[in-house]
Design brief:
The complex is a heterodimer of chains A (about 325) and B (about 260). Chain A is an alpha/beta fold. In chain A, about 25% of the residues lie in helices and about 25% in strands. Chain A contains 8 helices and 18 strands. In chain A, the strands form 4 sheets. Chain A has a 7-stranded parallel beta sheet with strand order 7-11-6-1-4-5-12, with helices on both faces. Chain A starts with 7 loop residues before the first strand and ends with a helix. The mean pLDDT of chain A is about 95. Chain B has about 260 residues and is α/β, with parallel strands linked by helices. Chain B has a single domain, classed as Rossmann fold, CATH 3.40.50. Chain B is about 25% helix and about 30% strand. Chain B has 6 helices and 15 strands. Chain B has helices spanning about 35-55, 70-75, 95-105, 130-135, 190-200, 245-260; strands at about 1-10, 10, 20, 25, 35, 55-60, 80-85, 115, 140-150, 155-160, 165-170, 175, 200-205, 225-230, 240. Chain B has a 9-stranded mixed beta sheet with strand order 11-10-9-12-8-1-6-7-13, with helices on both faces. In chain B, strands 2-5 form a two-stranded antiparallel sheet. In chain B, helix 2 links the parallel strand 6 and strand 7 (about 80-85). Chain B is globular. The mean pLDDT of chain B is about 90. The chains are: A alpha/beta (about 325), B alpha/beta (about 260). Chains A and B meet through helix 4, strand 7, strand 9, strand 10 and strand 13 of A and strand 3, helix 3, helix 4, strand 9 and strand 10 of B.
Amino acid sequence: MLEGYKDVYVFAETRDGKIQDIAFELLGKGREIADITSSKLHAILVGYNVSKEAKKLIGYGADEVIVVDDKCLENYLTEQYVQATYHIINERHPNIVLIGATSIGRDLAPRLSARLKTGLTADCTKLEAEASGALFMTRPAFGGNLMATIVSPNTRPQMSTVRPGVMQKLHYDESRKGEVTTVKVPFDASKFKVEVVEIKRENKKQVKIEDAKILVSCGRGVGKANLHLLEDLATELHATVSGSRAVVDDGIIEQARQVGQTGKTVRPNVYFALGISGAIQHIAGMENSEFIIAINKDKFANIFQIADLGIVGDVKKIVPLLVEEIKKIKAQ
Amino acid sequence: MLKILVCIKQVPDTNEIKIDPVKGTLIREGVPSIMNPDDKAGLEAALRLKDKYGANVTVISMGPMQAQEIIREAIAMGADDGYLLSDFKFAGADTLATSTALCGAIKNFEYDLVIMGRQAIDGDTAQVGPETAELLGIPQISYAASIDYKDGYFIVERKVEDRIYVLKAKAPIVVTVLGESMKPRYMNVARLIDVYRNKQINVWTAEKTNTPAEKLGLKGSPTQVKESFGKQLKAAGTVMDNLDPQEAAKVIAKTLAEKHYL
């Protein structure tokens, strides 16, 4: 029953007609899997006025880009996108389908896999393929306390959503060759039952903590009244302020700045963990940082188990002095 | 009157799980079981609709008999009734087999709205809501920050990374709720006493799902766990616990400079 399923397909997520980074990350990993399994890598590009973007996907590793360009795909709506992707998968019989574990991907993928009656592994951080075509999908569970490797032995396609920021994209190569195929999907509009009333964009410029070279991260041990000390340090280091789930829940910083299992995965050059005890959910999001500096009053705090430099002490007292020290060094 | 079903799950409180610093393994003993936080927010969303427009709120859970605890908690918070699906035939279910069982159970009810939490803190998959909606053949709206009901439409704010979609749909639909969006109310003490004294929790076996056994539990699961392992933490670096603040600041600044991070 598994015969006739071949190749790797990647869902190329777009927003406002622009391909998102996660698509290129998936192509990086997809290329590796396609090569190991001696198969081809296809990107599925679904949206409205997105055809012009197709060749970018080839430059990042796709052998073929399948485009569905339709007015009904202007905004992400579950049923419209499921019909488009289902149509392609049902015709092509992929061995593997990869989708980003974004709020779009995690809405689309389970609906699609249930329609295909196949398995889906959520939010993977590691994918390994065998030449036979079998895929081993590793993901954190129990809030990151446990890693589990999942297989789909009897059903195809093997599907997974992949955590953004984990897989590496290839270098863009404009000279790469590939095909662009446009597909017309026979949509059943009678199933489109969810309507957009309004789209509210968050006005303030989006902070992207995942792009920061240095992160100054705030934990519950800092408190709202002392947040300005961290902001001063961040300014001095041209860094960005981030934080743990606890301070997001307390409303001290906004959700876009949250590091961890339910927030962002980051890998800056330097990560300051200030007043962060180091719940495993938090560590899951920052452990791949190049250099981790932790300050905490509790010498038994978990964070010291992964810090490259750990200081047992009071953030409130140390941080202002640190800003002065950095100024001195810079002045030299 | 609106008829609302809320799916809730009993989970270990993963915030309380610690790692054995020597062996690097999980310490599970003494970890309390709780109502999954996103599900509790989903229940709160249902109870707010009940407060505003009047509604019958029924909770459904799947799990071992001890999961009756969270059904009692839900009723003490304001739910009208509760059902527990409990059967060894459900054991080992992945998200698709779980959704198949829930779908079978839900079909026993008349409903306008099914609410679930976005994801459970033990599995973190966020898949059961959309998969159940697909199997029921009704629309889904996930990542909801609020739910309202006006002129025959559910109005849902779907919150994604950089924007909020305000969406509307007619009954019946499935909505999955973000935990941080709604602070759940406390249990009502009188209701709590009443539920323990007088209320019988309905316990259903697999039969009530009208689903062939091969679609349930491990047998009905297309995905399987090949292996699981504790996470290897990277080795600890230097920890200094005898510096005064001035010395500490100097050490950090010097390290940053030496490693060319400044």
